[in-house]
């Protein structure tokens, strides 16, 4: 939803959109909840969500926030055991290695 709201802001030539911020905040809250739970922290879906936050910030946000998510992704990959642990999900493995 954060991506959709951000694209709508771009189309409407709006610098700032409250919906974008609200959806992004909700996404971050979900990710933080998943990361704090050992049963979900290392699931592919959580990595994909953080990857989406990274790309969102890279294209819609700031380089500081983008780099924060990128560093977080690298730390998550290392904590999981490296890129080889994504062998069953080659698309995610490829996206994370870029």
Automatic annotation (TrEMBL):
<dbReference type="InterPro" id="IPR021858">
    <property type="entry name" value="Fun_TF"/>
</dbReference>
<dbReference type="Pfam" id="PF11951">
    <property type="entry name" value="Fungal_trans_2"/>
</dbReference>
<protein>
    <submittedName>
        <fullName>Uncharacterized protein</fullName>
    </submittedName>
</protein>
């Amino acid at each position: 939803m954060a991506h959709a709201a951000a694209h709508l802001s771009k189309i409407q030539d709006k610098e700032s959109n409250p919906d974008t911020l609200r959806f992004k905040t909700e996404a971050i809250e979900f990710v933080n909840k998943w990361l704090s739970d050992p049963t979900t922290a290392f699931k592919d879906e959580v990595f994909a969500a953080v990857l989406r936050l990274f790309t969102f910030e890279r294209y819609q946000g700031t380089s500081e926030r983008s780099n924060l998510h990128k560093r977080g992704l690298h730390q998550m990959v290392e904590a999981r055991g490296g890129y080889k642990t994504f062998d069953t999900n080659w698309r995610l493995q490829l996206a994370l290695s870029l």
